[in-house]
Write a structure and sequence with these properties.
globular, disordered N terminus, 2 domains, 9 strands, N-(1-d-carboxylethyl)-l-norvaline Dehydrogenase, domain 2
Length: 340
Amino acid sequence: MTADARTVAGRRVAVLGTGTMGAPIARNLLRAGMHVRVWNRTPAKAEGLLAEGALLASSPAAAAADADVLITMLTDGDAVEQVMTGPDGALSALPPDAIWVQMSTVGVEWADRLADLAARHRVAFVDAPVSGSSQPAENGQLVVLAAGARSARSRLEPVFEVLGRQILWLEHVGDGSRLKLALNNWLSVLVEGMAETLTLSSALGLNPHLFVATIAGGPLASPYATAKATAMMDADFAPGFPLQHAAKDATLAAEAAHHSGVELPLTAALLDRWQRAIASGHGHDDVASAITVSPAPPTVSATAEPTPGSAPGEGLVRAEPSRERRRGQLMVAPCRDRAG
């Protein structure tokens, strides 16, 4: 969406955390004409925003001073609490009429804890995690899962419209974080299901592209799952949603389920596998690198692609089992080297 420039020009926004999600959020706010101050624990990661008009603050408190809206987009609840409290924390300098928008994925317990922290400081608080990875963030196509006082909605909607294609206003503070856990649990199951299905296709001697081509455009496909399938088959793990963050969110979902009296056996099983992938060096790679725990699909040539206009699977060749496969094993495709 595009917000009316008259409703956003001159608005002062502080963004604490300029990583995979925080940087594009700050960038879109700048492009909409807002005054943006940024802070990041590692200042070098925020310096790229200076050329676009952002001011780099020396501390969370310096970023928060004079802000109309403060956004936290950090790794977890503990990180959020640390930057908000203490003598250099944002709450020490945040104006009394400012709104704290907590966009980090922190889980249920931390969402409630941070809301209580805001209440003790008499600061308006909106729980507003987002659904979407780095590319939707760059394109202003996130889904904002917001919950907070109704009085804050009119002030925040012009900001949210710059960041997202959809804004869901929920009834109770913390409901945004609860819905985010449900969404990310579904994402985790989709990714692991695709990794295992591509592995199964290869183990059965099939070209894994055959499976993806067969479900494409049908009820069994989703754009996200098929995009991750492509990344898995290409061993392209440039981070859109780092595996270590996906594992953190899946852990939060499993913990919240347990505290609510239910279990998530699929999530528990994939977490064990994902932790092994992280231990082998894929924590900063995209969640698609979950495939590395299993034997990877073989590389296929262009001749294995479906012919335009053909039926699903037509024109695809059967993958030739490698010598490793004949011994009952498949080699894991190596992750590509990439800058940074």
